[in-house]
Amino acid sequence: MHKFTTKIVDMMKSEGFFEWQGGPIILSQIENEFGPLEWDQGEPSKAYASWAANMAIALNTGVPWIMCKEDDAPDPIINTCNGFYCDWFSPNKPHKPTMWTEAWTAWYTGFGVPVPHRPVEDLAYGVAKFIQKGGSFVNYYMYHGGTNFGRTAGGPFVATSYDYDAPIDEYGLLREPKWGHLKELHRAIKLCEPALVAGDPIISSLGKAQKSSVFRSSTGACAAFLENKDKLSYARVSFSGMHYDLPPWSISILPDCKTTVFNTARVGSQISQMKMEWAGGLTWQSYNEEINSYSEEEAFTAVGLLEQINMTRDNTDYLWYTTYVDVAKNEQFLTSGKSPKLAVMSAGHALHVFVNGQLTGTVYGSVEDPKLTYTGSVKLWAGSNTISCLSIAVGLPNVGEHFETWNAGILGPVILYGLNEGRRDLTWQKWTYQVGLKGEAMSLHSLSGSSSVEWGEPVQKQPLTWYKVM
Q1: What is the pTM of this model?
Q2: Contact 323, 384 (CB under 8 A)
Q3: What tens digit of pLDDT does each residue of 236-251 get?
Q4: How far apart are CA 182 and CA 95, in angstroms?
Q5: Catalytic residue among 33, 193, 298, 440, which?
Q6: Is 102 annotated as catalytic?
């Protein structure tokens, strides 16, 4: 880490990017949100955080160093806040500025959950409340949404869209009214600057859930923030001999302590809404992926179940698990009509189960719980039966304690119920493994690879189908 950090700092210096060189970099950050891990891991993590801080300071960037969510950041490093609200936050030393390094404009998009949205009224209220409390720096996360292409998205279950309901969306388009309302908020705060930088606010109660925060300078500048933190009710307050109407959960900004130029809950910006339109005039074709289409050169066999990421090395999301079940002719279910049941326990993240080439079920986990269990009736016949499970990894974990040890894929047990013997454990018998899909190997997703197969008329409700549109 020392070598990597040194290289980055040296690169920035060589390009003249730091503020003292005339560049745009005004802050340096070492580590990110490591503090919560300290709480769990104790002294070893504290020692590492201290080492990282001292290592960073020695690099002499010429601009302040910060650590986000690091309550015990040593001097001169500034500990900062990340969150939806940070008005509660104070740095660990009184001489350090109060900084909000991640004001969350919403949240990331996860597969299987609604697209997150944070009303701009609430975001503006959070920012104004932070400034009202004496905050000196706000950085939005995200202000410009983006897209994680290819295999760069985090996980599990984090979508490739990283739009974050940001003021500028992932396509570079302005999202109104979020963009315009925040622009007006920033303008109002800028008007208050002479008073804001002069000292701490004087706070006075204006009611049960209302208060004023007044900033004054020695030269006569005055700015006031009038807050109504009641989430449901409007409030009329008296301030400096005048009446002000405050919407619920809002702050009014008065750059001269008299005139309201902005209220966080009153949106005057235009409202725009993205509209999806059907794309007509397109020609669709499909190609069906074969089940168990591996060759001897591509597949390998092992006793027992193997962890998925160790097998795929993240070169693909897919790993086939295939085993064989012999059914005797005297099995009672063959005549009773009561089908056996198959139970498959997986560490995640999604699973398609095929028996004798037919899809019998699909299950998937979630952001909160990526683990899953498939349980369902299966149609078996006398003789040899093929059970093929296509396990799917939906992104690699990127945050959490020892996330490098988190597993994916079928780790068992795998149990077949309803046979004459009662239950048959398939976990420790031979399994054949195939990394990836045949279509991936042929690069069907590319322009050149798509011409290597014969495409047909589009089919519906057919598993493992590739689609091409022209």
Answers
A1: 0.92
A2: no
A3: 999 999 999 999 999 9
A4: 29
A5: 33
A6: yes
